[in-house]
Design a protein that fits this description.
There is one protein chain. By secondary structure, this protein is an alpha+beta fold. The protein has one domain: Cytochrome p450 (Orthogonal Bundle), CATH 1.10.630.10. The protein is 54% helix and 10% strand. The chain is built from 16 helices and 13 strands. The strands form five sheets. It has a four-stranded mixed β-sheet. Strands 5-12-11 form a three-stranded antiparallel β-sheet. A hairpin with a 2-residue loop joins strand 3 and strand 4. The longest helix has 33 residues. It is globular and about 75 Å long.
Length: 449
């Protein structure tokens, strides 16, 4: 994308910041102006989000304005500090996407948009609902094997199409003991793909786009009704009510966890891991050796095998650094102030979004040597993907996500094979999780015994 357009749009952002300081951040005029800048920058991000970030970082600095007057932090140290600020105050936003139409979410805030006691309660429910993978290796192994067997029957494994379907099926089995039909899985994936509709104003969603989004909303309603029939539901409800959450909050928070963070995030990272291992022959051969040394393939891998697969763990972490499925973290400024942007002091208001660009932070030259290179020898103990560790915003699903990907690697390289693969290319333009969606493993089949 033309860098001049990206920088010119930022000049407008700077001018607008002074205007909003005068008219009021939440005044009717202030809101209208911010929405205009949101749309203006949104078009740039949709066309080339990586160029958008890199050009502004290189030409302006590690802090710059974007979308609705949000302040983006792009360095490792800046994003890490933002993540670890406690207590945090968050709006109902999904990274860089501002939620203007909550009806698409059945008027339930994202778990990432909750604060205080509500956030504590939602987090407690999610931590209880998410199984520890080392305690469920047999179940997870059987599910992974069955889903890969189905792909083998088709003779190919399509990263962008097949992996999300597999992950959403697995998560519903693990969390609710529910088997979804192929139609329900397709509807769930459609719901996730259409999340951007929630960034449009509510009147547009309820009038011009009602026919387009109504099937997705109705699917969500049907599925959460099905959740309440699960044998697991009562225990989740009991946990939530201890924190004064109602049923609507509990069941919808689990829905979002499964569909957004769980399916979209884990399938994207799994696809990137497969892509990396297709390209990195030496690493792939070493992974195969590790799998063979830990598992004979006769029964499902046990907890010891999964836990001791150190090389696969390093591959997952380094892949998450290079290709983070979650590229932005978001919170709100608790008070007004000034920030230095491009060598000048710029005013910001209470409630201004503070965004952390995980993608640029993970490639910060001040943190990582040869940051754009894949290197399994790195120390990724303080990686920012999964929102880091040891604080209130750390991802509660990190352990399960890594455990699932490890299990897939065990089966892919022990029980299955493919004779060719298509081009491995990470899409750095479209606004979606960074993964080689078009990668196809052809001739995908079970290994002969």
């Amino acid at each position: 994308m033309d860098s001049k357009k990206i920088l010119q749009a930022h000049k407008i952002q700077l001018q607008v910041s002074w205007l909003i300081d005068k008219v009021g951040y939440d005044s009717p005029l202030g809101k209208s102006i911010r929405f205009i800048t949101y749309l203006m920058d949104g078009l740039l991000v949709l066309n080339a989000w990586r160029d958008f970030l890199v050009v502004r970082q290189q030409q302006i600095g590690n802090k710059f304005l974007a979308v609705d007057q949000a302040i983006i932090h792009s360095s490792y140290s800046g994003v890490r500090k933002l993540m670890q600020t406690e207590p945090q105050w968050r709006g109902n936003d999904l990274g860089i996407i501002r939620i203007y139409a909550p009806s698409y979410l059945l008027d339930n805030p994202l778990s990432l948009g909750t604060n205080g006691a509500e956030h504590t309660g939602v987090r407690a429910v999610l931590e209880y609902a998410l199984p520890e993978p080392l305690e469920r290796t047999e179940v997870i192994g059987r599910l992974v094997d069955q889903l890969l067997f189905n792909a083998a029957q088709r003779g190919r494994l399509h990263i962008g199409e097949d992996l999300p379907r597999m992950i959403i099926a697995i998560l519903h089995q693990l969390i609710f003991q529910i088997t979804l039909s192929e139609q329900e899985i397709s509807a769930s994936l459609d719901y996730t793909k259409n999340l951007f509709f929630a960034s449009l104003p509510e009147p547009i969603l309820k009038t011009l786009l009602k026919g387009k989004i109504q099937p997705q909303i109705e699917h969500r309603q049907r599925l959460i009704a099905k959740y309440k029939q699960s044998p697991q539901w009562q225990s989740y409800r009991e946990i939530g009510t201890q924190y004064r959450l109602n049923e609507h909050q509990i069941v919808n928070s689990i829905f979002d966890m499964i569909h957004i963070a769980g399916t979209a995030g884990t399938s994207a990272l799994l696809g990137s891991v497969i892509g990396v291992l297709c390209l990195e022959e030496t690493v792939r051969n070493n992974v195969v050796s590790e799998v063979n040394s830990l598992w004979n393939g006769e029964v499902t891998p046990n907890a010891g095998a999964i836990e001791n697969s150190e090389l696969i763990g390093k591959v997952i972490l380094e892949t998450a650094r290079l290709y983070p499925p979650v590229r932005f973290v978001s919170q709100l400024a608790p008070e007004a102030g000034e920030v230095e942007i491009g060598g000048k002091q710029c005013p910001f208001q209470k409630g201004t979004r503070l965004l952390g660009s995980v993608f640029t932070a993970n490639r910060d030259q001040n943190k990582y040597q040869r940051p754009d290179s894949f290197d399994v020898t790195r120390d990724n103990s303080d990686i920012l993907s999964w929102n880091g560790e040891g604080h209130e915003r750390a991802c509660p699903g990190r352990s399960l996500s890594i455990g699932l990907i490890k299990m897939f690697c065990f089966y892919l390289f022990k029980k299955y094979q493919w004779n060719s693969f298509s081009e491995v290319k990470w899409d750095m333009e479209k606004v979606r999780a960074v993964t080689p969606n078009d990668l196809v493993l052809s001739g995908f089949s079970q290994r002969s015994v």
